[in-house]
Task: inverse folding
């Protein structure tokens, strides 16, 4: 029987929309069963949130599984509110949590359950200050550790929240902001150690966590979390996904067109594979012919994947990079990526030449360049090749070249 797979919509997939990753899931569950805390690491659009949701689904009979999204959080107080609200579906835990916020809820005890989550969050937030959030958070962890089954606390977008606290709107690290991050991460570390074996924590996010903490000199605050690296699909797995999608939607790949698609991507990031299929599906439906041939792949890639719709999907690579690096050194990062996209490989001479063209108030050009390259390599933009740095993804390289490369003069050709 041919495998079938429905297209993915929204922020994550689970259940029968979840493709591959069986070995990753098995390994991650084994680590959690052994009591490990996990730092889920991968480049953008790799499926980290989907993996967390699928593990949550599979473990829900054995664990109390709580998923917390900190995408909008901007402080430790916000994080405590979001963790607290995750307990609302569990009556006994929620009643104990409400007791922690009795002063903020005061006379609302009869009507508090009628509030929506947004209103409830506002009420809980009113009961938190910079002086009491850690105590309230300690109490929530104690509540979780006191139940008769293990707890799996999956916290998404922690690095995004920490980055906001650390850099603020002007993207500058101050002594005060560093102290706030240190306090939050030390609190999280303390509770992860105190309740080891009762509460397992998985941290993840759409930007790399370790580079952000390193910028603040706080890398040691996550050294009790085991890194779990989620890799791209290989071309065979990606082609299998494309075939399963085609089987579901009545598309007939001819002469192994799906393998050509996977090879064209180079780095088979799950979201990009699904995106490629979506363009193929739309074209086949519009023309009323469901056969798709290898000689059509490049046209879809050039005009759809790298077109306006593809642009909207890929601009998040720019946006997230600005968040991590800040305004001062981002222009150098942009030029490094453009230089690599245009020339195909960023070598030592080009890097040395670029250093001479930039000056920074907070660091030397060499230090800024080293920081940028660490972030670009950690977050999957570039990888080290034989002659220097190259793009990990053909799609990202081609998109970056199309967006910025038209008027770019390679640094070693300037002034010739």
Result:
């Amino acid at each position: 029987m041919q495998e079938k797979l429905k297209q993915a919509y929204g922020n994550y997939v689970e259940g029968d929309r979840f493709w591959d990753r069986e070995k990753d899931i098995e390994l991650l569950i084994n680590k959690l069963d052994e009591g490990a805390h996990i730092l889920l690491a991968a480049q953008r659009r790799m499926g980290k949130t989907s993996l967390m949701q699928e593990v949550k689904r599979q473990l829900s009979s054995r664990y109390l599984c709580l998923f917390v999204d900190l995408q909008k959080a901007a402080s430790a107080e916000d994080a405590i509110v979001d963790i607290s609200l995750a307990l609302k579906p569990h009556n006994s835990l929620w009643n104990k949590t409400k007791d922690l916020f009795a002063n903020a809820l005061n006379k609302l005890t009869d009507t508090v359950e009628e509030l929506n989550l947004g209103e409830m969050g506002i009420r809980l937030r009113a009961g938190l200050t910079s002086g009491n959030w850690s105590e309230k958070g300690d109490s929530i962890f104690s509540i979780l550790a006191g139940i008769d089954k293990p707890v799996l606390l999956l916290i998404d977008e922690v690095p995004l929240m920490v980055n906001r606290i650390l850099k603020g709107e002007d993207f500058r690290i101050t002594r005060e902001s560093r102290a706030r991050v240190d306090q939050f991460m030390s609190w999280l570390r303390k509770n992860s150690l105190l309740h080891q074996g009762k509460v397992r924590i998985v941290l993840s996010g759409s930007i790399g966590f370790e580079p952000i903490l390193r910028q603040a000199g706080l890398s040691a605050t996550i050294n009790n979390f085991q890194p779990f690296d989620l890799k791209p699909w290989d071309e065979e797995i990606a082609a299998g996904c494309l075939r399963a999608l085609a089987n579901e939607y009545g598309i007939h790949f001819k002469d192994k067109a799906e393998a050509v698609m996977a090879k064209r991507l180079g780095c088979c990031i799950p979201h990009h594979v699904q995106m490629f299929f979506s363009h193929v599906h739309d074209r086949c439906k519009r023309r009323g012919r469901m056969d798709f041939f290898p000689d059509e792949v490049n046209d879809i890639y050039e005009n759809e994947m790298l077109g306006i719709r593809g642009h909207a999907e890929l601009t998040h690579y720019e946006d997230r990079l600005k968040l991590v690096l800040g305004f001062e050194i981002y222009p150098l990062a942009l030029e490094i990526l453009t230089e690599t996209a245009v020339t195909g490989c960023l070598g030592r001479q080009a890097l040395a030449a670029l250093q001479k063209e930039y000056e920074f108030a907070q660091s030397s050009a060499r230090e800024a360049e080293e920081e940028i390259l660490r972030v670009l390599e950690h977050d999957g933009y570039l990888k080290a090749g034989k002659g220097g740095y190259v793009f990990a993804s053909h799609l990202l390289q081609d998109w970056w070249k199309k967006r910025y490369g038209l008027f770019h003069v390679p640094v070693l050709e300037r002034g010739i």
Remarks:
- The radius of gyration is 24 Å.
- The chain has three domains: 21-229, 235-314, 325-413.
